């Protein structure tokens, strides 16, 4: 039997501590909540310079020009700017490649911009995505870095091409549910009923804006009690989906906000479990700026029925079928869903197998 003398017994806790340290470092990230990630002053100043240039170059009420754009296009048609926000490979690049090349009228009617976390090694997807990566900064969940990344995408797209009229924010887990022609016609079509209701040709942004959710109070106080006052009273605080489609005037409104709301939403959270700034900032800002100019619903379908740790349901290959695509398209709103998330990377092959016969066959 192994025994320790009284003179050696003080070594026991020391040895236990030494052997426990590696285990502690391994488990700490899983046990402890993520540390708040403040946006550094150099990053903030760099972004402010970009936002100022985008705001000055894009007055909110300037009509879309028909002159030659900065990317060399002479096509007078307005464009959709597809903004991909990712921290991993674009798993469905092949499917999106088909989406952009499938439409008979897609050429010259879209632009692509990718914000990829520079701290993560990402394999360039090639094809239509070649050279579409913008200068990016680190992103982390439960922090305002995701707001900053989305604003960076919007500002870059505003500056890059004055014909960008809609700005669709997507993730690497998003897939298209329709052909490009269908998406384009859905966004730019105005029904007689809409014209009669709003009396103008101004398009509306497709962004979810909710004001009666049970989670609202905890989300409002995520940075501390009364911290959001006086700029954001609780009655004006909103929540919504992280992914949206904004009109040009609303994209300008987002990048023009450099102090009023941003100075509040960029503060680190004290309650990480209620901290989802990217789901609060955009709905709150646009609700306060132009509530009537927004649909209050998103065109990206998400299944929250069995969410885990704030993540929605992830579709996997056994679930994929034509019936699932048809179901995901269905909406209780005026417009059908155009995109959907969240799909696991191994869904690519099954999706490609039904792309021509189902997804892009509207």
Summarize the structure.
It holds the Pfam family Branch. This is Peroxisome proliferator-activated receptor gamma coactivator 1-beta like. The chain has helices at 11-31, 41-57, 93-102, 145-160, 180-188, 192-198, 216-220, 248-256, 262-265, 281-290, 322-329, 348-353, 355-359; strands at 79-86, 110-116, 164-171, 175-176, 205-208, 245-247, 294-296, 300-302, 339-341.
Q: How would you characterize the overall build of this protein?
A:
With 362 residues, the protein is an alpha/beta fold. The chain has a single domain, classed as Spore Coat Polysaccharide Biosynthesis Protein SpsA, Chain A (Alpha-Beta Complex). Helices cover 35% and strands 11% of the residues. The chain has 13 helices and nine strands. It has helices at residues 11-31, 41-57, 93-102, 145-160, 180-188, 192-198, 216-220, 248-256, 262-265, 281-290, 322-329, 348-353, 355-359; strands at 79-86, 110-116, 164-171, 175-176, 205-208, 245-247, 294-296, 300-302, 339-341. The strands form three sheets. A four-stranded mixed beta sheet has the order 2-1-3-6. Helix 2 packs parallel to helix 4 and helix 2 (41-57) crosses helix 8. The longest helix is centred in the first third of the chain and has 21 residues, at 11-31. The chain starts with 10 loop residues before the first helix and ends with a helix. The relative contact order is 0.14. Residues 1-8, 24-34 and 66-73 have low confidence and may be disordered.
